[in-house]
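Researcher: Please generate the 3D structure of the following complex. Treat every line as part of one assembly.
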Amino acid sequence: EIVLTQSPDFQSVTPKEKVTITCRASQSIGSSLHWYQQKPDQSPKLLIKYASQSFSGVPSRFSGSGSGTDFTLTINSLEAEDAATYYCHQSSSLPQTFGQGTKVEIK
Amino acid sequence: QLQLHGSGPGLVKPSETLSLSCTVSGGSIKSPNYYWGWIRQAPGKGLEWIASIYYTGSTYYNPSVQSRITVSTDTARNRVSLNLTSVTAADTAVYYCARHQITVLEPPAPTRIDPWGQGTLVIVSS
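Model: Done. Output below.
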């Protein structure tokens, strides 16, 4: 099973700041890495597919990068509505797995 | 617009079977372009993928539940179902049904997940 490790677990950020969340895979997964946003009491929503491809309807301040074992989700100019937990997810091999999540709080 | 609506009992007794349904609207589960999946989230915890099914009936299960889980499709009702036997408190979670895109390679495999259903909370307790 591929283990995804996110860092940090928690981040408290001021609006308009830049947020960087990393996801490290226990073995190479190419670009089969996706990012989701989950707000309290809501279902997760896809933000970034295949490491760096923006998903339809997602604000342009969200971007992704990386390949192999190291990936990054960046939120440029954080807005209050971005308060959420963010998860990475690999679909390279079964079982599909998720990172443990990174909670982003707005100061 | 595709929507997934999960339903089922919110309370199941230990050792019994958890049964959930996911009704899909705005699209057909017979499409060859998607897998249909189940992901769960224990209270205050992260996400765990547990199963995916293709319109052909081909299934993938997480080894963590493989001996206890069955996922099936009901094409007449455009519905995907989940049965999980011999449940314990560790199976208490919000269960999400969702749609996977598929790979371009053969045989097709499930990839990213979008959209997700609203989630069904299932508590295992006597």
